[in-house]
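4.2 Preliminary Data

To establish feasibility before requesting continued support, the project team ran the inverse folding procedure on a target of 167 residues. The structure was first converted into the token representation described in Section 3, and no sequence information of any kind was made available to the design step. The complete token record follows.
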């Protein structure tokens, strides 16, 4: 019985040592809506799942709906929480919605642009960023599955940058 607990402890410690500790924040820029829409939450959830399934320890601040001029203030607040929580990396993801998009519809075509930055928490240095116009998902779907697929692809791009940094 002692061997079993020792084995479990060793496995847990090994997983903890090899995992990245990531904190992230999603900001929604959507003039037509003053509160976080369901599509933003779907994207946040898909990114959280991607990093968790890749073995990372992931925390996040709740998604917020804000104007672009508030991004820096939100970044500072969320970064402070990442520092306090002991995260290695902080990711801020901004979703720019099309003003003509329907607020209750979940469709990839509702988003014009996605931008993100990754900051090394200990060094307080931005290590990667990207800004891209939303393209079709690989399967060409424009529904909730297409949104999840696209969010996972964005998370995979972020993960590649983190793995590159870790080497």
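Position-by-position output of the design step:
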């Amino acid at each position: 019985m002692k061997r079993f607990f020792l084995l479990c402890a060793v496995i847990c410690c090994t997983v903890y040592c090899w995992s990245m500790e990531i904190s992230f924040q999603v900001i929604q820029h959507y003039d037509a809506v003053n509160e976080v829409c369901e599509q933003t939450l779907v994207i946040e959830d898909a990114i959280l799942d991607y990093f968790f399934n890749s073995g990372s320890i992931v925390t996040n601040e709740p998604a917020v709906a804000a104007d672009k001029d508030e991004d820096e203030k939100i970044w500072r607040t969320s970064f402070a929480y990442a520092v306090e929580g002991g995260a290695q990396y902080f990711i801020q993801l901004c979703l720019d919605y099309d003003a003509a998009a329907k607020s209750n519809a979940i469709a990839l075509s509702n988003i014009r642009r996605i931008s993100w930055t990754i900051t090394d928490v200990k060094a307080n240095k931005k290590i990667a960023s990207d800004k891209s116009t939303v393209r079709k998902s690989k399967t060409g779907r424009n529904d909730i599955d297409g949104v999840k697929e696209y969010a996972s692809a964005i998370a995979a791009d972020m993960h590649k940058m983190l793995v590159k940094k870790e080497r």
